[in-house]
Design a protein that fits this description.
The chain has three domains: about 1-35; about 35-125, Orthogonal Bundle (Cytochrome Bc1 Complex, Chain D, domain 2), CATH 1.10.760; about 160-275, Cytochrome c-like domain (Cytochrome Bc1 Complex, Chain D, domain 2), CATH 1.10.760.10. The strands form two sheets. A two-stranded antiparallel ribbon has the order 1-2. A two-stranded antiparallel ribbon has the order 3-4. It is built from twelve helices and four strands, in the order H-H-E-E-H-H-H-H-H-H-H-H-E-E-H-H. The protein is globular and about 90 Å long. Helix 4 packs across helix 6 (about 115-125), helix 7 (about 160-170) packs antiparallel against helix 8 (about 175-185) and helix 8 crosses helix 12 (about 265-275). The longest helix has about 35 residues, at about 5-35. The termini are far apart. It has about 280 residues and is mainly alpha-helical. Pfam families: Cytochrom_C.
Length: about 280
Amino acid sequence: MNKRQARVFAIVSTAIASVAFLGLTLDSHRQFDKLTNANAITDQVTRGKDVWHNNNCINCHTLFGEGAYYAPDLTKITQLRGEAYLRAYLKDPAKFYDENKHRRLMPRQNLSDADITGLIAFLDWVSKVDNQGWPPRPLLVTGATFPGTDRNASQPPRGEAAGAGAAAATEDPVALGEAVFRSAVPACTACHSTAPGVNMAGPSLAGLASRTQALLASSEYHGHAKDLAGYIRESVLTPSAHIVPGAMYSADGKSFMPATYPSALKPEQLDHLVAYLSTLK
């Protein structure tokens, strides 16, 4: 290739690349409203965005993986925690965490009820933006690890997709139940650890079987279950039937546990989940 041919090649390549870049840019702008659910941006969402910026939330938190990494990524937080939990948490974070133990206590912002409502609306809008799977999973700061590993208790195991596929290929209800535990929407692992003493947004499920037997035999239980399997089903389907003591688990007599599982889980998935959780002795 001589100099003239090289020059022509460079000019043509640059032109083609420029046209492709402009085309992709225009196509992205064409889809922005749809991808970001622009039609769902209400006055509350806008107010929540202002609350987010005015309180410098991004100095600690991230959205879509962008921001500071001192505190959890909040891209999908409304789907993981729910409005009741977030409202109570934003009113007084000190009820949920011990600063001396966790060392990441969120400061109390003294937000008004209207500001909290707006902020939750904004975060809910963020959670429904088509981020095409980024970040790969929320960053949940707990400081907990699975026994014998360096893996955070709130994160799915490495190679989760392969593990889920393996579970799907087996008839073992316990293995299938563990897959449900990690893949339900929201995932049980987002709020519960199976490590002893590691309480997240929900209590640790370590020793669930033995603790449940003692609870059912005591006067402290206020639900309707008669055995372990019944208690697990009740906890998933009607979580407020029995309130686990602790300000971080409920408010005004209602559990923070999502009430969406009756429609989100198929009967066989619930059966498998019960089988798995029943093994946590």
